[in-house]
Amino acid sequence: MKRLIKFLESDLPLMISGGALTLSIILAVVNAVLRYSISYTINGADAVITLCFAYTVFVGSAAAYKRGAHYGVDVLVSHLSERSKKVVQVLLDAILIVVMLLGFWLSVNLTKNAGNKTFEGLSILPYSVYDMSAVIGFGYSIVYSAEFFIADLKKLTQKEENT
Q: Closest Cα to residue 91, out of 156, 14, 37?
């Protein structure tokens, strides 16, 4: 059970974003080769590449966030005391939870409002599948933000208890 939870929580976003990136690259290369070699393009390839790009960006962003792979600038924070750094980190975690919740709420509303809209060039695929990439990405980011908040809050309170 723990392996399943770890897979769903940590590995699945990587697999989704990695698979989407791989598929988009393969489709783009194959489509380009076909276009220039035999003047043929795959019908709907651009729509699928756009869809894959959305999943790469939103779900991949959440996966990178989980691993601390986003860049940050800590010019001001680096001059603070250790305790102040921990307080700032807890505050930033709380702000990120709020921002991720807002993004999640907006993306859910966007997905709900997609209605019967379909992809241009791929009329069988509803546009809500495209919008779901943001819902999934922000959903994972909320979970990760909560994990970071709890861990940083524990670090802050442990330091106070030891003093």
A: 156
pTM of the full structure: 0.73
Phi, psi at 22, each rounded to 5°? -60, -45
Contact 145, 91 (CB under 8 A): no
> Residue 115: phi, psi to the nearest 5?
60, -135
Which residues lie below 8 Å from residue 48, measured CB to CB, with a gap of 6+?
Answer: 23, 24, 27, 122
- Among 64, 63, 53, residue whose Cα is nearest residue 11: 63
- pLDDT above 60 (res 153): yes
CA-to-CA distance for 99 and 138, rounded, in angstroms? 9
At 105 the pLDDT is 93
Q: Residue 157: CB partners within 8 Å, gap ≥ 6?
A: none
